[in-house]
Amino acid sequence: MIAANWKEHFTVSEASHFLHRLEEHVISHHSIEVVLFPNILTLQPLSTQLDRRKFRLGAQDGYYEDAGAYTGEVSMAMLRDLVHYVLVGHSERRHIFNESDSIIAKKTQAAVRNGIMPILCVGETLQERLANETKQVIHNQLTAGLMHLTSTEASAIVIAYEPVWAIGTGEFAKPDQVEEVILYIRKQVAELLGERAARHIRILYGGSVDDQNARSFLDIPSCDGALIGGASLNHHKFSQIVESAYRVQQNRTGKQ
Ligand code: PGA
Fold first, then answer.
1. Which of 99, 124, 162, 179 is labelled catalytic?
2. I need a surface site. Which of 57, 71, 139, 191 has the fewest CB within 10 A?
3. 162 has catalytic annotation
4. Residue pLDDT, tens place only, 165-215
5. What is the mean pLDDT of residues 100-108?
6. How confident is the model at residue 255 (pLDDT cuts 50, 70, 90)?
7. Cβ contact 4:24 at 8 Å
8. Beta strands at 85-88 and 56-59: parallel, antiparallel or unpaired
9. β-strands 85-88, 117-122 pairing
10. How far away, in angstroms, is 176 Cα from ligand 1 center?
11. Residue 135 to residue 140: CA distance in whole angstroms
């Protein structure tokens, strides 16, 4: 899976123009799911323009209550007919908007309840990595984030490992660091929800992925794809990343 977190503050016409560009450049492959996460304002108009054979839509956030007086919020229930996926617990939501683990757990649950697949984002800050706390942080975020899900529900969700220090900084994690954390995430999911969920759950890497380094992450056997911010706003880079994912897939199926 290749997920594109469009963090640009696109207007409706800018987003439409950019989608047009991507539709021209990205080659669709049956085996590679490409999901676009534009801002909430543009989701509805883009949904009518989107070539569904190429792309799926996701939301960057969603509120956890299905109904009620919550001025300004857009609920998962409102998004359900529009998107396949929703990002939950992105580091910018955790750190800029102070979203707690308990809010994130409610959002994960609300997404599942509304038939939207959450991409639960987890990752440590630089201080936490330097203090050797990476696994503890991931453990806490996973335990809290998956708290309200059954094993069957959890099997269908996606987890994105995004070290905070690698997001938007150009400083990406080394593939062996990523592999170590992904294996740890699977082990934690197995402990929390059983082996079946651990086998089925998809785990992505995110954090300064671009066309030059994507292959090194996608080649990690336990990595199921990438979540891309900055480079997803460049149609050349993004289409190259999708091609890398396709080549890795071809290699894997060739080897089986
Ligand atoms: P980046 O962003 O690729 O620009 O580091 C990743 C993200 O926002 O998920």
1. 162
2. 71
3. yes
4. 999 898 888 999 999 999 999 999 999 999 999 999 999 999 999 999 999
5. 95
6. low
7. no
8. parallel
9. parallel
10. 19
11. 9
Are 203 and 182 in contact, with CB atoms under 8 Å apart?
yes
Burial of 256 by CB count in 10 Å (0-12 exposed, 13-18 middle, 19+ buried)? exposed
Please say whether the beta carbons of 177 and 217 come within 8 A: no
The Å distance, Cα 95 to ligand 1 centre, comes to: 14
Read off the pLDDT of residues 53-69 as tens digits, 9 standing for 90 and up.
899 999 999 999 999 99
Nearest residue to 35 via CA among 183, 219, 204: 204
**Tokens found for residue 118:** 């959450």
- Point out the catalytic residue in the list 29, 90, 124, 195: 90
Query: How far are the Cα atoms of 10, 76, 107, 155 from residue 114, in angstroms, in the given order?
Result: 27, 6, 10, 16
How far is Cα of residue 233 from the mean position of the Cα atoms in its chain? 16
Closest Cα to atom 2, ligand 1: which residue?
229
Gap between the Cα atoms of 20 and 230, Å rounded: 18
pTM for the model stands at: 0.95
Enter the tokens of residue 119. 């991409």
